[in-house]
Amino acid sequence: MATQKPVERPLSPHIQIYRPQMTSISSILTRITGNALIVGAFLMIWWLVAAASGPEYFATANAVATSWFGDLVFTASLLAVWYHYLAGLRHLYFDAGNGLEIETAEMLGWICIIGSVVLTVITLVLV
Questions:
Q1: CA-based nearest residue to 41, from 74, 87, 72, 63
Q2: Which of 10, 61, 93, 112 suits a disulfide with 86, CB 3.0-4.6 Å?
């Protein structure tokens, strides 16, 4: 029996010509930050359970929470909270039928990203 030659078809959209859009990036970031908040929540819950369990267990949990790893997780969680909050406001604005033009949607996506970084820095400085 003769073997068929596979048909060479281009990928669609091809990775070299496709430019990610701000609307898709902000949607993906909203999902990532929403799920990433779970990591910070688990670390905080572990710390609270350890505080209720006893001084030895709390010392271990507190060492992790106050280490560079804990600082990184809590700072990333703070950034995720601010981004998720701003993206939620953006989504409410869209739900009202506003800002659905491409230029406005892209501008609001950049506002969410830049605003979350600025608000995170302000929060870290104030706290």
A1: 74
A2: 112
